[in-house]
Design a protein that fits this description.
The structure is a homotetramer of 357-residue chains.
Chain A lengths: L9 E5 L6 E5 L5 H12 L4 E6 L4 E6 L7 H6 L3 E6 L18 E3 L2 E3 L3 E7 L6 H14 L3 E3 L17 H14 L3 E5 L13 E4 L7 H7 L6 E4 L6 H13 L5 E5 L17 H8 L4 E3 L1 H5 L5 H10 L4 E5 L17 H17 L3 E2 L1
Helix pairs in contact in A: 3-4, 3-10, 5-6, 9-10
Chain lengths: 357, 357, 357, 357
């Protein structure tokens, strides 16, 4: 029996599990180019699912595409476009770990309904300053003491922190109040100095200091990872993945304001990062309202918004004498202001069914 | 008595009231250039306060600098730099109007402790749809009905709204439920059609459609002005100033998400706009959490954050059948989801001491 | 014959021409949900190509997806994700119109190797000013006269342009020099005033004033469309598509600087827009280096870069007395500076094999 | 004699040289607060120039304000606003060093009319690859060989570079072709490995890795500093200042694309950075058109634009087999394409009066 030449090409596609990536081939790709491409992909252990039409040809990839270089695929003469379907992160992915992670910071729990307030000065400046602030913030309800010893400053002429001595002062303050301490690391060479620190902070500017992230992945200690000023949320989670890929899954994500066109404040708090990060990942998410706006009078409304949006904690700068602070005075609360803030915060935590630790 | 030649030049400066602008002159500016500049400034009714040093010369301007063109001043051969000190807006400025403005939307108050929820579909689609949604959102606690008749769409091939017919359907829904209606205008030529609309909305893309703002300034009707996707807060307030300069001071500011690098959601809600706008201006500030993220599951956390940050109202998209909505389905709540949201919202309003109108 | 239960589901897919959109369904989508979705899509005239796997199910759509609302598709309970494959613009798309469009501006050609310089003051201010500048820029090599009559200003207190009178002065200048004129429209109501204008400009702030674009689509006159300050290139081309969809295909695209975080200049020239727009579309692309940086001393390097990147024209502000310009003085060249610029520009045009018209 | 109470306060101001910073005091600042502030400022060696009016009080600061913390000044109860007048960088500042710096890269000069092309693969992958590419790019006119040994990758699962072995391969290639080599450092701990490298590159993500910058400041070797993806030009120059403050003034600035909202290419080349950086600083400025767009077909127009805008060099990725590159294939030219590019580039360099080294 005669059949008319079919108007369309037919083909079968086979899907093994989830599709991870889609390649759309060029209309004019030659059979040889396509064969070479397919051979190369299969040699990387990927399953290929082809769907070929009269004018289009799509290849679906299933398997471990995490290490595939999308840019090189795009350079392939047969490829028109590459689209990733699955997320490029795995250990941080809520899909593979549906329950909230609770990070234990030397006894203070963060995440999964546990709310922690970390407070203290931007920079550790003197024994008196850090001791006084530590006692004041503890009295007001902060369970973790923050304070910078190594300070990343835009200008080489600005105060660079007390460094080793600052760490020593933090430990001394901890011995008086019993609060775990969190402080920032800037370089792998300083790691030995941080052995007795409870929570190591990675600052926004080091969010993609990959050598540092790798080393932190070898520790067994909570890492507080701050989001880069212009990082997407996927990039942020990928940086957490760097740490987790090394074996350290104790990561706390901290949103601290992103760069926008706004000039009336330093940065813009991305409050939507809270629910979105919690959808993407099981890691706890805290907010730093002090750095976000850079203005002390905005700390309260932003802290309230953070809690209402579902955050797991706050990081707040408190200084006994903001006008003479060696850094970031404009955003620091006085101990009295911090205490007033805690009074406002507590009823909201109750409403949101969070446990203040 | 002989005195050594003084090392420094001295000069007197006289300050009449607040300084509004500072001009820093070029080191090599000639006397004639400076004289010409000063003459020109004085002829505009400004007071000049000169402070002249060995290597620098600064002129402070006091007076009505609002209409001065900073760019042309910068082009002056004698001028190195121009800095504005006072805000370029006046009628919207809280400094000159310390008390919160309360806007009366056909009986529903917004601002000054009064909180209003505006809800309804993105687009008015049919009599059944708008009537059903109007009744459902009223029952759940929304006091104002929103719905788009004229729709600004990125593509000319997308649904452009029912236009005149949509306005008619909104009025019909109002006759059934008694809720005032808010809907968007896109063009001055449509103004006659909006005579019987309670609140006229200016969309984000028209925030700087100055011809439209001028015409709205001639009305005596509340204007809900949405912030442009990349507008600074000062530009936003300046657009309100356009309306107010024409005589209409009934302006409600609405933050609806700004454009950022984030790709996991449509826009990024700028929660810090709430406290900052309230510091800059006395006008009420509401939040649209639906457009902000473009995702219905994010409406609740963002709405909660908005209230906690001090907003005066919410604008929320509700559709009886989001999957078949003619526009913006992904961000629309069902009436049932909206009702659940209102249950969450009410205790927080109480905590924040806001009156739900 | 017994066959082992197949480990994988098989299915056939049929591709009619290009795939336009891909829907990735949710793992837990029910058969009924999927049937309803498919029925709805087919009723819109689309062909569906399903590829169903053990854990994933993808639907490829072929046909006129331009009017599909991606957001509502995302709201469908069966849909996990929606990806567009084909461009949402058609008339402006180079794929369907491979040859460069040459726009005829009352005799001056732009595009396809033809290069035009449009020059003149930001604002038309007086008969003397516009006449003088028109003559000077003509002498130096500009073939089209620019000048603003209706001025979009951020502040209601700034000079708003001479409006009707400004248009009259432009026409008068044209009668003296013979140059076609280009000037900005801000509102559909002003259209009758623009009947005798050679090229109508749509400003950056009106790039998405869709009602205006629609009306311009009904004309048979060149439209110079400026890119919005934060618009993506696709949005820019979509705005051109709005005009072209109405029947007017004489659109010139103008990149004039985008908003970035940089504060040392007004905007940032996106030079890569030139090659990318030319890949996306067949329409001519010109550059406005005056608005881009807002600084007269940067006009030359940016104009040179524009030509080297392949632009089809320049739009440059020239003022006889920048320091006393009523707007944008800081970015205006004097006639003498403009003449010097043209001396620099010409050898580069020759090198780039462009014909200066 | 009785005189009427003067309507305005008078005061004298003394200006020692240039004004560096202006403090605008709060209307309600008390005398004691102001005295304390002034005392504190004077104790830092600053000269104060007060200009006091009826309602305003301004203090001009002259002296070394580089280390003043503006945020803490803003936190002072007497201070309303702080504005910096002078640039916060000094060694990199063209004002103090009007002539172009020429950096000597092991014999290849960059800056001051000397133009250098650096070319090579994104990653060093094998002896054959780097040797082949080195020879090809040298033949085509590249005077410096680039190649990555330590690779900063967004994903921990991507190829991380050959590290030490990659450096060894680069040195081997150099021994064959005689080209100086430039390669990226990611961590201070790797510094000993870079002793025999001619030019050390700091990647965009490490532009504010201040500990690394400080260590590089101790070397006597050219540093190629890439601009961060969202850094302002002032921040970029401040990072150069970090290196120069340590004593190493051999810094080459490299613009490589900034993050914008555009999705059709990876980043957006900021061509205006070339003239603006050259105004701010005396350091040479080069352009990396490969990373800017991430698309090989855009390298030529962007490279041409860079030269026309006044750049001092280009950094271009070349790979013998882009489709199989271990990183960044989509943006790599083949040796043949690179050779064609150099043919286009040379006449433009002649026109711009640059010497290709």
């Amino acid at each position: 029996m005669h059949t008319a030449k079919p108007r369309f090409l037919f083909c079968q596609i086979f899907l093994w599990g989830n599709l991870d990536m889609i390649l759309i081939l060029k209309k004019n790709a030659t059979k040889q180019q396509i064969d070479t491409l397919c051979h190369s992909l299969k040699s990387k252990g990927l399953s290929l699912h082809q769907s070929e039409g009269e004018q289009s040809h799509i290849i679906g990839l299933v398997g471990d595409t995490k290490s595939l270089d999308m840019d090189s695929l795009r350079a392939n003469p047969a490829v028109e476009e590459v689209r990733r379907i699955s997320e490029p992160y795995k250990k941080a992915n809520r899909k593979f770990h549906p329950q909230d992670t609770i990070v234990n910071c030397s006894g203070v729990l963060v995440g999964g309904g546990n709310f922690a307030v970390m407070a203290g000065p931007c920079s550790v400046e003197s024994p008196e300053q850090i001791t006084l602030v530590a006692q004041e913030v503890k009295k007001a309800g902060a369970s973790i003491l923050r304070g910078g010893a190594f300070k990343p400053r835009t200008s080489p002429y600005s105060f660079q922190g007390l460094r080793d001595d600052g760490l020593e002062l933090l430990r001394h303050a901890r011995s008086l109040t019993g609060q775990p301490i969190v402080t920032e690391i800037m370089n792998t060479e300083h790691l030995p100095l941080f052995e007795d620190v409870d929570v190591i902070q990675v600052g926004a500017r080091n969010m993609q200091n990959f050598e540092l992230l790798k080393e932190l992945g070898k520790l067994n200690k909570p890492i507080l990872l701050k989001r880069g000023l212009s990082a997407t949320l996927e990039e942020f989670v990928m940086s957490a993945e760097y740490i987790m890929a090394g074996g350290n899954e104790n990561v706390i994500l901290c949103e601290r304001g992103i760069r926008t066109f706004e000039t009336s404040m330093r940065n813009t708090l991305d409050i939507s990062a809270v629910p979105m990060l919690k959808k993407m990942s099981h890691l706890p998410v805290i907010i730093d309202p002090s750095h976000a706006a850079g203005l002390s009078w905005m700390v309260e409304p932003l802290a309230m918004a953070a809690i209402a949006a579902g955050a797991d904690g706050l990081m707040i700068e408190v200084h006994n004498d903001p006008a003479n602070a060696l850094s970031d005075g404009a955003q620091s609360l006085t101990p009295k202001q911090f205490s007033a803030l805690m009074q406002r915060v507590c009823p909201l935590l109750t409403l949101m069914e969070k446990q203040l630790n």
